[in-house]
Amino acid sequence: MSGKRSGRSNCRNRGFTFIELVIVMSLLGTLMTTSWPALNNAYKKYLFEAAIDELKNCLSFARVNSILERRRYKLAFGRVPPHYNLLCEEVKEGHSEFIAARGRWHGNKLFADGIGLDSGPEEIVFHPNGTSTSAVFTLKDSMGSKITFELIG
Known about the structure:
By secondary structure, the chain is α+β, with helices and mostly antiparallel strands. Helix content is 34%, strand content 29%. It is built from one helix and eight strands, in the order αββββββββ. Strands 1, 2, 3, 4 and 6 form a five-stranded antiparallel β-sheet that branches. A three-stranded antiparallel β-sheet has the order 5-7-8, with no helix packed on it.
């Protein structure tokens, strides 16, 4: 005989045992439990910063386009649910009215959950000469963070 065995070899199967899987799963569960609050707070902070950037872009868009298009733009805020809406002036037959701005800013823009206007005016109007109504308003989130915007004419 040549020394070869027929049938089973001495090598164990290459899979994981049930105990090894349970240990790994419990370690992953513990890791997720301890890191979840930090991840959740980071996500809320991201949403607040995104809302700030979006509102700054909207303010800039309204000011620039009111000058370029030679018509007034109005940024109107709503409290319930927290949102804002950009309107542009349409002049027809000697009278003017504000209609929803076209493109990216069309319709109500809702703030993310927990983010809203803490204080400030109901609307801000941007004029073709580059001025606007003076306004101070504060945006807040559910974690207590606040940022104040100030527009001076």
